[in-house]
Amino acid sequence: MDDTRDLLERTGARFPFPEQAFERMNRRRERKVRNRRIGAWTVAAGIAVLAVVLATRAVPDARDRTGHRPSPSVAPTVDLNLGGPRHVFVQISSGDVGKMLPEGIDGGSFYPVSPDGTRFAFHPCCDPPVSSYVANVDGTGARRVSPDGVDAYGPRWSPDGTTVVYQGRNGFTQMIGNLFVADVAQTGRIRQVTELPQFQNGWWFLSPTFSPDGTSILFHLPRGPGPTTWDLWSVPTTGGEPALVRRNAAFGEYSAEGDLVYLSPMQRNFLGSGLWVLEDGKARQVVDAQDIGWPRWSPDGTRIAYERGDDVHVVDVASGRSTRVSRGGRPEWFDDDTLVVARG
Hints:
This protein is mainly β. It has one domain (2-342): 6 Propeller (Neuraminidase). The chain has helices at 2-11, 21-37, 43-57, and strands at residues 87-91, 97-100, 119-122, 133-136, 143-144, 151-157, 163-169, 178-183, 190-192, 209-210, 216-223, 229-236, 243-246, 250-254, 260-265, 272-279, 282-287, 292-297, 303-308, 311-316, 322-327, 329-335, 338-342. The protein is globular.
């Protein structure tokens, strides 16, 4: 893995950022949510929330360089206290906004659904330590799938629904950490699949996702020095040497048929200036717009949901026609006609 690590070191030179960019983006969204709710809050509720935040931040930092504590045990949880934005089901064909997610599991960052449509994966937002969870879509059976007290971001399902990949890191620093795969079907065992150079970088979120056959994991990696941008990389699910997939690309995801969607990254921003699809080795721009993010393939591979500003849009891949479907952000497909959207 030495040659790959040398390449990663060159494309990921060490340089400090005064603030963690992904947290800053999350906090802007959280401020909007809080502003919508502030009229309904009481002084007592504010004091209670402050106490919870202070208690959370008091967790001691005993992590190793991978972002994990020595024990890989997976523990159940009862009260998640996620505290983030609320999420709703949005029907694409009618535009109807349906019910909210069950209260016990709502308030996380985003909610990818398992391939069989029975479970969500999610993590809280935004203060460390952040754990990854899975739960039934009705809110029952919630359990943590990362070690207690470990920062575990961005869980995504494998195609067979037996494992999730997440990014494990020390959330009290700007280190990017590594990628881990957790068996959520049987053993609960966790294995590390990357050995990335641990440079400090405010643009730390790797956005991992599985390939259609489940044999590899796609992720983007920030590089420098100078204005930040990203490249897409792939690593075997069992671990090994990462391979460069595409330069100047971020937030990549494969469709079930193997087509790749990605963003043209904007410098010093987590958003993109264009949405592209790579089909049979040929790249085609399907959305030409600024400040877009979070592209997600529909299960049938015909459409892509994405966020732009405070709205969620869906683009038909064949025609390139894009339609605004809802206020909100962080869209995740529940089925071919339904999105789960963060609405506050």
